[in-house]
Design brief:
The chain folds into three domains: 84 residues, Arc Repressor Mutant, subunit A, CATH 1.10.10; 98 residues, 3-Layer(aba) Sandwich (D-Maltodextrin-Binding Protein, domain 2), CATH 3.40.190.10; 107 residues, D-Maltodextrin-Binding Protein, domain 2 (3-Layer(aba) Sandwich), CATH 3.40.190. The strands form three sheets. Strands 3, 4, 5, 6, 9, 10 and 11 form a seven-stranded mixed β-sheet that branches. α1 packs across α2 and α1 crosses α3. A hairpin with a 4-residue loop joins β1 and β2. The longest helix is centred in the first third of the chain and has 28 residues. The protein is of the alpha/beta class and 298 residues long.
Length: 298
C-alpha cells in the first residue's frame, strides 16, 4: 500500500464521483479506478458501493476513511517536522560559554532574538571555562562556543564578536585608587597580591594576564583563587588583593570595589564565537548567523 493510494481513496470518498475525483487529483479516471481496485484488494474489503448512478462508501470504507485521514495527517506532520528541523526551527542547540560572556550585551540580545525566532528550539546553555568550551566543541558535546582567546585545534574556526578593555579591580581602600581615575599601567600592580582564576580552571584571561605582566616586567603573585568572577570581586572588596577583569564586569557594582582602566596598549580582551569547521547543525548555523549579524549591526 502506498500513500498515493490513500490520497486517491480520500479524494473519491470526498467527491463520491470517480470523474470529479480524477479531476481533483489531476489524473485520468481509468487509472484512478484501477488504483482503487488495487487498494481494495490489499485491504481485503470493498470500500465503495458502486451502481450505475452513484458511488457510496461502504461501512468498511467509512471506517477506513477515518484512519486514512489520520495516517496522512501524521505523514504531513512528520514531513513538517523534518522540514523545520532542516531549517533549524526544531530540536536542541547546545551552547557552551565562558562566565564573562553574558556581560557582553550583544550575546544576551542574540539569545533573546534566537528564542523569539525559533521558539521550538530548546537552548541548552552550559557555563564552562574557555578550555572546556574548546574541548566540548572538539568532542561535539556542544555545537557553539563563546569564549576568551586560547590556542585552538585546526578543527575549529573563530569569529571575533567583540573586543573590550581590561580594567584593574581594586579595593576602595587601596592607595592606588587615589589619583588613578584616568587609569593606570599594569606595572603599578607589580607588588600587589592577586586574586584570580586558578590556572587549572582553563580561563583564557589567565594566559593573557601572564603575558601582559611579563611585558610589564613582573610575574603576578597569586594569593587567592576563585572560579567565579563575582567571588574574585568580593575577595578584592575584602582587601585580599587586586585583580584584572574585562571592562564589562564594571556593571557589577559592589561596595568597596573600584575599577580603573589599564593604560597598557595590549590590555584588551576579545570574545570569540567558535564552532567546528564541519558544522552540520542547522540550528547552530542559524544561531551563528544571528549573532554575527548582531555584531555587524553594533
Amino acid at each position: 500500500m502506498e500513500l498515493r493510494h490513500l490520497r486517491y481513496f480520500i479524494a473519491v470518498a470526498e467527491e463520491l464521483h470517480f470523474g470529479r475525483a480524477a479531476q481533483v487529483l489531476g489524473i485520468s479516471q481509468p487509472p484512478l479506478s484501477q488504483q482503487i481496485q488495487v487498494l481494495e484488494q490489499e485491504v481485503g474489503a470493498r470500500l465503495f458501493e458502486r451502481t450505475n448512478r452513484r458511488v457510496e462508501l461502504s461501512e468498511a470504507g467509512r471506517l477506513f476513511l477515518e484512519e486514512a485521514r489520520l495516517v496522512l495527517a501524521q505523514v504531513d506532520k512528520a514531513a513538517d517536522v523534518a522540514r523545520r528541523a532542516q531549517l533549524g526551527e526544531l530540536g536542541e542547540l547546545k551552547i557552551g560559554f565562558t562566565s564573562s560572556a553574558p556581560f557582553n550585551s550583544t550575546i544576551p540580545q542574540a539569545i533573546f532574538s534566537f528564542r523569539q525566532r525559533f521558539p521550538a528550539v530548546h537552548l541548552n546553555l552550559r557555563e564552562m571555562s574557555s578550555t572546556q568550551v574548546a574541548e566540548a566543541l572538539v568532542d561535539e558535546s556542544i555545537q557553539v562556543g563563546i569564549m576568551r582567546p586560547l590556542p585552538l585545534p585546526d578543527s575549529l574556526e573563530v569569529v571575533e564578536l567583540s573586543r573590550e578593555p581590561l580594567v584593574a579591580v581594586l579595593s576602595s581602600k587601596d592607595p592606588l585608587v587615589v589619583g588613578s581615575e584616568e587609569g593606570l599601567f599594569l606595572s603599578a600592580l607589580a607588588h600587589e597580591p592577586f586574586v584570580f582564576f586558578p590556572r587549572s580552571y582553563g580561563s583564557g584571561l589567565y594566559a593573557q594576564l601572564l603575558s601582559l605582566a611579563r611585558d610589564a616586567g613582573f610575574s603576578p603573585h597569586f594569593t587567592q583563587e576563585a572560579g567565579e568572577a563575582m567571588t574574585i570581586i568580593g575577595l578584592v572588596a575584602a582587601g585580599l588583593g587586586v585583580s584584572v577583569l574585562p571592562a564589562s564586569y564594571q556593571r557589577m557594582r559592589i561596595d568597596g570595589v573600584v575599577y580603573r582602566p589599564l593604560l597598557d596598549p595590549l590590555a584588551m580582551s576579545a570574545v570569540w564565537l567558535v564552532q567546528r569547521k564541519d558544522q552540520k547543525s542547522p540550528r547552530a548555523k542559524a544561531f551563528v548567523e544571528l549573532l554575527t549579524r548582531k555584531v555587524e549591526v553594533t
